[in-house]
Request: fold
Amino acid sequence: MATPRRFDPRRLKYDADWIPILSANQLENIATEVLEHYCPQVLKPNHPRKTPVLEILQGLTKRTGLKFAYGDLGFRNEQKILGKVSFARKTLFLDQCLESGPLTKRLQFTAAHEIGHWILHRHSFPRWKFTIDRDGSLEDDAPSLHKLLDSSPRGWLEFQANVFASALIMPRVNFEFAVAKAQVDIGILKRVGLVYLNGTPQGQLDKFRVIEELEKTYDTSKQAIEIRLETLNLIEVQPVAMPLRDAVNDWPDLKDISAF
Reply:
């Protein structure tokens, strides 16, 4: 029996700017539903692997009419534009620099981020009461990717797309297992499952090595992995004790209803 669809854009609530009101858990669930539909194999709990985002794009082309292209997307405020989704043209663009060279590790997250915009935001964009980018599109440079702390209308769009993208390429169902496995593989046998920072160079080195292992598993950037660790509360920081004198001195004074 087919699993009933849970995400229905017709049932979403919107704020005054016509941005969908979605919690981080709801965004995780929507991403999981997309994976269940297009590539359920990546949701095996003890078998973390790369999410085939380009296959998801192909599926969205068949189901929703989304087109996909590489190209030179240019710059915005001297920052390279890495991804773009044009709602009016029903097209998702990735910059050609992601195909080869030093930025290839950003392909996974950038593509997943733009997929998030398409799934979450295309139904309400005609009603937005704020300015977006050229030709009715959303353009994403490196700073906007991974942005989590910005309460402007555009900032909320990026927050939602970023949380969705993280869950799409690093599903929670096996990410925590992947962290534990990476630690064991490099010889960390204490506090397995949490990246423990104790204020020492060794702690920072261990964190870096775990992220390197996860980078191999999920084929995405170190920055994306670190943010995923933080948002899932998998980094534990030991408070650094200060001498009493220092402590005292430092005391602070919808027309298309097909979701995906």
